[in-house]
Design goal:
alpha/beta, Rossmann fold, seven-stranded parallel β-sheet, three-stranded antiparallel β-sheet, binds fructose -6-phosphate, isomerase activity, Glucosamine6P_isomerase_CS, EC 3.5.99.6
Length: about 250
């Protein structure tokens, strides 16, 4: 696990976008593992620019998102389906709908939905490059503290910390779904390469813990210490623990 301080959110996001771009540019049938959240907004802006500047054809690229809220349909403004459409997929018409995988949060049979998601991952995977954000409690995907390192895609309960952090996107805390479908930790760890991006002073403490702690299910991201190809990309605020005012 290697940490790189890119100084600010702009440079960090450009780096992550460029790494994603290089993977698709080298392999037109690449498999991407994608994340949502505030941290990724500038990554997708940069990736869209690189894709269009280089006229990439994305029809054979597969994408797998980490998670979706249970109970939100694909057109709900706060669903991760909407997020991905708005931040990435709508900017290029060569993305192929049938190669875009995001869990269906309103599936009538969530168990079957989760199994089907894993089957798709096994069919097209392993993921060539997985990007991750991190929760202030150390979650990756929505694998909250205590999640089993053997977990695969399933329904999870969101922790209070996650509900509080994500309530800024909803009218109030009570509107935040209490559950999500999340790729499991074992599913994430199958990726060939992982880049975790953490920006802003609020992520300083958890990244310090991640770098120094034992591998423990109490801090889900700590499993990344055992993966052979992980980079942690941060800005000054995460690295030094003070806000430099340029994030968000
Ligand atoms: C999002 C996801 C989460 C976020 C994390 C950080 O798909 O799986 O793990 O990456 O909660 O969120 P932000 O970037 O909003 O701080």
């Amino acid at each position: 696990m290697k940490i790189i301080n890119m100084k600010n959110a702009t440079l960090a996001s450009q780096y992550v976008a460029t790494e994603l771009f290089k993977v698709i540019d080298n392999n037109s049938a690449a498999v991407l593992g994608l994340a949502t959240g505030n941290t990724m907004l500038e990554v997708y802006r940069n990736l869209n620019t690189l894709i269009s500047a280089n006229k990439l054809n994305l029809k054979n690229v597969k994408t797998f998102n980490l998670d979706e809220y249970v109970g939100l349909n694909a057109s709900h403004p706060q669903s991760y389906h909407t997020y991905m459409r708005q931040q990435l997929f709508k900017y290029n018409d060569t993305w192929d709908e049938k190669h875009i995988f995001i869990p269906n949060g309103i599936s009538k049979d969530v168990k079957a939905e989760c199994q089907a998601y894993e089957q798709h991952l096994n069919k097209y995977g392993p993921v060539d490059i997985q990007i991750l954000g991190i929760g202030e409690n150390g979650h990756i995907g929505f694998n909250e503290p205590g999640a089993s390192f053997d977990s695969i895609t399933r329904v999870v309960d969101l922790s209070d910390s996650t509900i509080n952090a994500n309530s800024i996107h909803f009218d109030n805390k009570n509107c935040v779904p209490k559950q999500a479908i999340s790729m499991g930790i074992a599913s994430i760890m199958q990726a060939r390469r992982i880049i975790l991006l953490a920006l802003g002073a609020s992520k300083h403490t958890i990244i310090q813990q991640l770098l120094t702690c034992d591998v423990t299910e109490a801090l889900p991201a700590s499993i990344l210490q055992t993966h052979p190809n992980v980079e942690i990309i941060v800005d000054d605020a995460v690295y030094f623990g003070e806000s430099n005012g340029d994030h968000r």
